[in-house]
Write a structure and sequence with these properties.
Blueprint: E1 3-5, E2 8-13, H1 15-21, E3 30-32, H2 42-45, H3 50-58, H4 67-77, E4 90-93, E5 96-100, H5 111-114, H6 117-127, E6 133-139, H7 144-152, E7 158-165, H8 171-178, E8 185-191, H9 194-205, H10 208-216, E9 219-222, H11 229-248, E10 258-263, H12 268-279, E11 283-290, H13 295-302, E12 304-306, H14 327-334, H15 339-352, E13 354-356, H16 359-362, E14 368-372, H17 375-389, H18 395-411, E15 416-420, H19 428-435, H20 446-456, H21 463-469, E16 477-480, H22 484-492
Parallel strand pairs: 5-15, 6-7, 6-9, 7-8, 8-16, 10-11, 10-15, 11-14
Antiparallel strand pairs: 1-2, 1-3, 4-5, 12-13
């Protein structure tokens, strides 16, 4: 499998090279030259466990790893670090299937890819005779940072630096990051929002002189954000696994279609579902669910992407994003893999804050539906699901559930899978306020609200939360957004 850049099709890399590089030199994202089809029938795949299925789905994309190398990466990634042998169980509640992607060590869906990425990256480095230390720079809206650090902490010949928006993540998310141990780890809070952090990381990646300075010191950059193809490919697996779970348990027949609804910020998670569909997974519609930062909803309805709008801090902070980086890959695909057109759209986004796709390209959006939920609608949906079923969903899943309900008549009558992306314990205050409005929370800490949430449900407090209650603060750097490069230099040099 060859990988091209979305902004320059003449770039041709193997998967190991693309994983190591993270982002192309001209700023493009790596995409497979073709999307492979499943090699086995869905009924055959349904007889596999998660690890076996992961190999079948991922190997066509990562075929310059040997079979033994990829199987070793998978075995190391998906073991007793997850609290269920299923890895990604489906829970039926209120007429839909919630795909629980939060059973990994940091209780968020990012673990599904970030537990394997360090193994892919270190194997790729060895295969490509890389002698430099690999420096992971990552912007996070809450979950990627901790999941990436948990994966890369103390991995030999790697260093990782995470930037998060000051005041823009939940207290549990912040504590998970600033208590992270590891001699190769640094965490920095930034004045600004996630887009400022993400743009800063991209500028550093594009700073040729700075990269040369670091290379002279034996370092080279890569990324653990979903711009890295090594993040995206493992995410395809769990959508296939969800379908196979339904098939194995005779909830559907082979070939029946399902709807997939995904709470969406940076667009990587739903793009993985799109790739699953293009590989042959029977998906009726992909439902892109946004919170009040509804730039994607407007794009899918109008064909214009416009980030020139107010930025909102919401109860679903991992979706508080106005520049959805992975959308660039979709733009490339629906343009007929036109790198010049894609580069032009991204240039317009950078200079003007907006772009409008062609009428022909809009036809390529037919796989998607889009909607958004307000804060009130999200809280109401969390409460409704809890009152009706006793099942607790987090704030991001609440957005997706609310949007699915609003669009379900248009989506069709097929079974629906909703991506449940985080443990409710990561957002305990918002959950408790939603399901028990009579509880006065203003004068209580987030840790108090975790205890309150445990009283409300039979879901025990996860180990990841228990651990941060007694962990020491290890990282307290706070900088303006324009000082990110200086922070990187201080960390590395």
């Amino acid at each position: 499998m060859i990988y091209n850049s979305t902004r320059d099709r003449s770039v041709r890399l193997t998967s190991t090279e693309a994983i190591l590089k993270g982002l192309s030199d001209e700023g493009g994202l790596f995409v497979p030259e073709e999307i492979p089809a499943f090699k086995k029938s869905l009924s055959e795949l349904s007889r596999l466990d998660y690890r076996e299925l992961a190999f079948e789905v991922m190997y066509p994309y990562l075929d310059d790893f040997t079979e033994a190398e990829l199987k070793a990466c998978i075995a190391n990634a998906y073991g007793d670090n997850f609290d269920t042998a299923e890895i990604a169980p489906l829970t039926y509640a209120d007429g839909v299937y919630y795909l629980e992607l939060y059973h990994g060590p940091t209780i968020a869906f990012k673990d599904m890819a970030l537990q394997i990425l360090p193994h892919l990256m270190t194997t790729a480095a060895e295969k490509n005779n890389v002698k430099n230390d690999i420096v992971i720079l990552t912007a996070t809206s809450g979950d990627t940072g901790k999941a990436a650090m948990a994966g890369f902490a103390d991995v030999p010949h790697t260093r990782i630096m995470v930037f998060f928006p000051h005041g823009g993540v939940s207290d549990v998310q912040r504590l998970q990051m600033v208590t992270q141990p590891g001699g190769n780890v640094s965490v920095v809070s930034v004045d600004g929002n996630f887009d400022d952090c993400q743009s800063g990381v991209k500028r550093i990646f594009g700073d040729t002189d700075f990269k040369k300075e670091l290379e002279a010191k034996g370092c080279q950059f890569s990324s653990a954000n979903s711009i890295n193809i090594g993040r995206l490919v493992p995410q395809i697996v769990y959508y296939v696994y969800a379908y196979c779970n339904l098939l194995k348990n005779e909830k559907i027949r082979e070939g029946d279609s399902i709807d997939i609804c995904v709470p969406t910020g940076n667009f990587g998670n739903i793009l993985a579902a799109y790739l699953a569909k293009k590989m042959g997974l029977p998906v009726n519609r992909l439902i892109c669910a946004s919170n009040k930062n509804n730039v994607l909803t407007d794009f899918f309805k109008s064909g214009t992407y416009d980030r020139n709008r107010d930025f909102h801090l919401t109860m679903s902070p991992s979706m508080d994003i106005l520049i959805s980086s992975n959308l660039e890959r979709l733009i490339y695909f629906i343009s007929g893999c036109d790198d010049r057109a894609t580069s032009g759209f991204m240039s317009s986004l950078s200079s003007k804050g907006s772009y409008t796709i062609t009428e022909e390209m809009k036809k390529g959006l037919s796989d998607f539906m889009a909607g958004y939920a307000t804060e009130e609608e999200t809280a109401s949906e969390i409460r409704r699901v809890y009152d009706d079923t006793g099942y607790i969903i987090d704030t991001h899943t609440g957005v997706a559930s609310a949007v699915y309900r609003a669009l379900s008549d248009d989506a069709g009558s097929c079974p629906a899978v909703i991506a449940s992306t985080a443990s409710p314990y990561k957002f305990a205050r918002s959950i408790v306020e939603a399901v028990s409005p009579d509880i006065t929370a203003d004068d209580r800490s987030d840790m108090d609200m975790i205890d309150e949430l445990e009283k409300l449900t039979d879901m025990p407090e996860p180990k990841a939360v228990s651990d941060i209650k007694k962990a020491e603060i290890r990282h307290n750097m706070h900088i303006p957004a324009d000082k990110m490069k200086e922070a990187v230099r201080e960390f590395l040099l």
